[in-house]
Structures are given as C-alpha cells and as structure tokens.
Amino acid sequence: MRNAVILLLAAFSAVARAAIIRSGGIELPTYTDPCKRNDKDFSGCVKKTLQYLIPKFSKEGIPQLNITSLDPFYLNEYLMHFESTQIEGKALFKDVYNHGLGSIKIVDVRSVVEDPEQLELEVDFYMPKVISNGKFKGEGRIGQMPIMGKGVFNVTSYDVTGSWMLKGNAVELDGQRLHAHQGRWHEIRPLET
C-alpha cells in the first residue's frame, strides 16, 4: 500500500508542474490543469485534482514512466521492519497483489505554500476495502518470546484511513524551478466506529 501513495505522489507532481511533463525525453500530457501555489484554495485544488486522477491511474498507471496500475497493485518484494519496547520483528513479503487501491478517496488536503522554496502537504485518505495477498517470511519477538513464520497470506481490510505527508524543496532542473518531493506515511489505521 505504501507504494500506492508513490503513485499519488507522481499524480501530484504531474499536477504541480507545467502543462507538459518532460522525463528522459518523453513528453507526457498532464491530465488536468496544474494547481497554482498562489490560489487561495490551493489545498482544495490539490484534493480535487488527486481525486480526479485516481480513477485515471487506477487501471492504466503511467506506462510511459513504467508506473503500473493502482488496481491491482503488484509488489515484487517488500521488506518491513518494526521495533518497539515489547515487540520487534521483520518480515519479507513477495509477489504481493493489492486490490482496492483504486477506491482511494481523498478526504482532506492541508498545505503550507507561503515559502516559495518549500512545499508541505498532508493528504488524508480513506479506502472502503483493500485485499492483499502474497507470500511472507517473518521473524521477531514479543517480549522475550521468539516468533517466526512463513507461508501465504490473504488479508482483507475494511475502512482503512490514513494520512500521508509530502515535503519538498525547490530545485532547478533543465532551467525550470521544480519541487523535489519526499513522501512518507504519517499514520494508517482502521476506522474507529
């Protein structure tokens, strides 16, 4: 699921740049008008644009950039490591298929755009249902008790919500001022009822 947000980052980058994206000599049309930083409702524009782009990228991805579709979203391999006082572990996931990412709803966007050298966005999202399946191998501990396992998994999650933070600094590329973005997960949680 984390990489699905990378696709959202690509979508936002397409919106934030000019009418044509240039990448390695490939010209890609943007799918909507760019959001302008000085727009009084910049956050609303980004929210509307992301929500508009999700269905477009959901089935097709961006083939010119070798970005696959959101639905299903395939991960060849993903290593996860987690650590806290009482729980520690790592897991390797392989051949993972995620279904339902195309149903992402953008709930809210908050932006900080006053400094022309920086851009900050926080994007809240909701997915009604996500199904993930693949293979895993993991090991770790709960307290002093070691745990390990391997096999196949099939997980269905309902009412998934989360926030994604995106920060960027101004850079110059081919004579254009752009923002280099670094995205990260802030929080993902099931919806509390």
Automatic annotation (TrEMBL):
Organism for this UniProt entry: Acyrthosiphon pisum (Pea aphid)
Gene Ontology CC entries for this record: extracellular space
Domain of life: Eukaryota
Protein name: ACYPI006788 protein
Keyword annotations: Signal
Pfam family, one: JHBP
Cleavable signal peptide: 1-18
Keyword Plastid: no
Chain ranges passing through the membrane: none
InterPro entries: Haemolymph_juvenile_hormone-bd, To_sf
